From TrEMBL:
Entry keyword set: Oxidoreductase
Disordered: region residues: 105-125
Highest taxon of the lineage: Bacteria
InterPro entries: NAD(P)-bd_dom_sf, Sc_DH/Rdtase_CS, SDR_fam
Family matches, as Pfam families: adh_short_C2
Keyword Hydrolase recorded: no
Protein's recorded name: SDR family NAD(P)-dependent oxidoreductase
Keyword Oxidoreductase: yes
Similarity comment: family membership: Belongs to the short-chain dehydrogenases/reductases (SDR) family.
Organism: Actinomadura fulvescens
Length: 285
């Protein structure tokens, strides 16, 4: 396999499991030196996600590149700044930032919620509890803003950089019940933050784009949907034009495009990765 990202350094947040882990491994496979950052570097264990080595960092190292792990709560500005500082100090720079930290269960102690099934909380727009609202905004939006700000300072000095923020179809689509309101508005803000940041940083040689995935199956979603997983998957896939649910690797491959020279003239865009599900209205993840 070619390694076009050899010599480049990537920081991937939320990389302990799921989509973030897939992005970290994909960039390592392409030759990047990777900083794996997460609130909990062992978060894969929470939902039984199997690793091919003891840690995600070890999995990256297995591709023959350099890697380091950074445990950080990126809702805290100082921890986001430390994560960027450590990346630069340990891996020698920062060329690529991929912000995956977030999700509908974006902090410890928050009751797990799936993106396609039952909801233990009333997450509707007029009723969502205040702590849930604040937690979803900080876990999805603030993490992105603080990490982008810290990374932009370094990238500006270097005169180049690529940032990919993970938004969601929930940013533009509305569930008829109004549920997942806080998550949806946090992701809508993430998409628009991506656009305004791109306008600011373009003259500095920094490109900023976002990916808005539809339903992506991870170990977390399988565990959270339990015995209903297969029927949910089959029913949902039947309405997706490509007739399957997305995988974390589907998102990782578009991330590859957005950090490569193939997308050299693209910035401020939100790329939908949903198998066409947005066309038929099934994808609000
Ligand atoms: P996940 O919940 O399985 O993983 C998210 C990771 O982020 C976890 O390891 C968690 O520890 C980490 N994290 C959470 N809060 C953090 C914080 N404050 N600081 C640092 N790390 C933190 O989520 P996933 O399904 O892999 O999704 C990854 C991203 O993609 C999320 O932003 C999510 O909203 C988005 N997304 C997911 C789907 C889907 O169907 N899975 C669809 C659309 C968008």
């Amino acid at each position: 396999m070619s390694t076009p990202l050899t010599g480049q350094v990537a920081l991937v947040t939320g990389a302990g499991r799921g989509i973030g882990r897939a992005c970290a491994l994909h960039l390592a496979r392409l030759g990047a030196r990777v900083a794996v950052s997460d609130l909990n570097l062992n978060s894969a264990a929470e939902f039984g996600e199997k690793l091919s080595a003891p840690t995600v960092v070890d999995e990256c190292l297995a591709y023959g590149t350099e890697a380091t792990g950074i445990e950080a709560d990126l809702t805290m500005r100082n921890e986001a700044e430390d994560a960027v500082r450590t990346t630069v100090a340990v891996l020698g720079g920062l060329d690529i930032l991929v912000n995956c930290a977030g999700g509908t269960a974006a902090s410890p102690g928050n009751a797990p919620q799936d993106e396609g099934g039952s909801q233990p909380l009333d997450t509707r727009a007029s009723r969502m509890p205040e702590d849930h609202y604040r937690q979803q905004l900080s876990g999805n939006l603030t993490t992105t803003v603080f990490t982008c700000q810290a990374a932009a300072a370094v990238m500006r000095e270097r005169g180049r950089g690529r940032i990919v923020n993970i938004s969601s179809q929930a940013a533009t689509r509305v569930h008829p019940s109004g549920r997942l309101a806080a998550y949806s508005i946090a992701k809508a803000a993430t998409s628009h933050y991506t656009r305004v940041l791109a306008a600011e940083l373009g003259p500095d040689g920094i490109r900023v784009n976002a990916i808005a995935p539809g339903f992506i199956v991870t170990h977390r979603t399988v565990v959270q949907l339990g015995s209903g997983f297969e029927s949910w998957r089959d029913a949902t896939a039947a309405h997706v034009p490509l007739r399957r649910i997305g995988t974390p690797e589907d998102v990782a491959k578009v991330t590859e495009f957005l950090v490569s020279e193939q997308s050299a003239y693209i910035t401020g865009q939100v790329i939908t990765v949903c198998g066409g599900g947005s066309l038929s209205g099934v994808d609000r993840a």
